[in-house]
């Protein structure tokens, strides 16, 4: 945790929440794959994790959004070395106002238990144990015109991409004005990488923005360098969020180590 993939996702999340705070009187946030909430990053980097991440931003020049995000991460470490990394539930809760609320959904029993312990006394947070593909629709609130859903599946099962696209379509039908942030896999195959977007467009969901971060990274277990791409889709982008994300990511990648050759691209899908 805390690598460039998390950094990308959580900066987009911060952008979206700030947009909603500026333009709404109150909103509901749903995290469909909430995880444990807080993670130990003191151990060595795992094989699939990027070697570049939030630690590279600590002393870099930052804009307002990046400063907020880094400040939240620092807050969970008491101002000392970065040993803990907050997941999306923790980041979102720090950004929500008293009039906002959120639902957290997690399938893994251990992660659900940790999440429940962390938020057990928080009346603004509803926590549910189960699959996102079954539970998200049940958490779309009545009476909330505005909202945000974060969908971040592992894409380790063959049907995950189809299920993700179908979930977006269902959410769009029940909550037309809600914005959605969706992480997408990168395989290098154009057909596979466009699969979710193609299903959405065929169903009539066409208001889509993609943000990509491409960078050179070291594969730890093989000791070789490869190009990696982090992809985040925004469904129903509201207000000026496309330009905000574009500005934030462009500035962020410019502060990362030159050797990773990081570059960002934000465009209509």
Account of the 3D structure:
The chain has 269 residues and is α/β, with parallel strands linked by helices. The chain has a single domain, classed as Vaccinia Virus protein VP39 (Rossmann fold). The chain is built from 9 helices and 10 strands. It has helices spanning 4-23, 64-75, 88-95, 109-119, 132-135, 160-174, 190-193, 195-203, 241-254, and strands spanning 28-31, 38-40, 84-86, 101-106, 125-129, 147-151, 179-184, 208-219, 224-235, 263-268. The two termini are 28 Å apart.
The top-level CATH class is Alpha Beta
Could you describe the largest sheet, including whether it forms a barrel?
Answer: 8 strands, mixed
- Please state the second-level CATH architecture: 3-Layer(aba) Sandwich
* Helical stretch tally: 9
Can you give me a brief rundown of this structure?
This protein has 269 residues and is of the alpha/beta class. The protein contains 9 helices and 10 strands. It has a single domain (4-268), classed as Vaccinia Virus protein VP39 (Rossmann fold), CATH 3.40.50.150.
Topology:
Elements: H1 4-23, E1 28-31, E2 38-40, H2 64-75, E3 84-86, H3 88-95, E4 101-106, H4 109-119, E5 125-129, H5 132-135, E6 147-151, H6 160-174, E7 179-184, H7 190-193, H8 195-203, E8 208-219, E9 224-235, H9 241-254, E10 263-268
Helix pairs in contact: 1-2, 1-3, 1-9, 6-8
Which descriptors apply to this entry?
two-stranded antiparallel sheet, eight-stranded mixed sheet, 9 helices, 269 residues, Rossmann fold, 23% strand
């Amino acid at each position: 945790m805390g690598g460039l993939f998390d950094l990308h996702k959580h900066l987009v999340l911060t952008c979206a929440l700030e947009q909603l705070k500026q333009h709404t009187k109150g909103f509901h946030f749903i995290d469909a794959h909430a995880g444990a909430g807080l993670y130990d990053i003191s151990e060595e980097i795992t094989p699939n994790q990027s070697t570049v991440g939030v630690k590279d931003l600590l002393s870099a020049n930052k804009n307002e959004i990046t400063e907020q995000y880094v400040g939240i991460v620092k807050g969970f470490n008491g101002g000392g070395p970065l040993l803990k990394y907050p997941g999306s539930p923790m980041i979102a809760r720090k950004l929500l106002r008293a009039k906002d609320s959120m639902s957290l959904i997690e399938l893994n029993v251990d992660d659900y238990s940790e999440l429940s312990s962390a938020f057990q006394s928080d009346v603004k947070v509803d926590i549910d144990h189960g699959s996102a593909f079954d539970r998200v629709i049940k958490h779309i609130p009545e009476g909330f015109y505005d909202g945000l859903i974060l969908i971040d599946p592992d894409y380790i099962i063959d049907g995950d991409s189809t299920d993700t696209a179908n979930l977006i379509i269902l959410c769009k039908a029940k909550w037309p004005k809600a914005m959605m942030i969706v992480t997408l896999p990168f395989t290098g195959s154009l057909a596979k990488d466009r699969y979710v977007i193609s299903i959405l467009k065929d169903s009539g969901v066409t208001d889509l923005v993609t943000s990509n971060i491409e960078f050179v990274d070291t594969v730890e277990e093989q000791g070789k360098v490869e190009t990696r791409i982090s992809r985040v889709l925004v469904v129903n982008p509201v207000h000026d969020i496309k330009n905000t994300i574009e500005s934030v990511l462009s500035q962020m990648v410019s502060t990362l180590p030159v050797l990773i050759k990081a570059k960002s691209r934000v465009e209509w899908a």
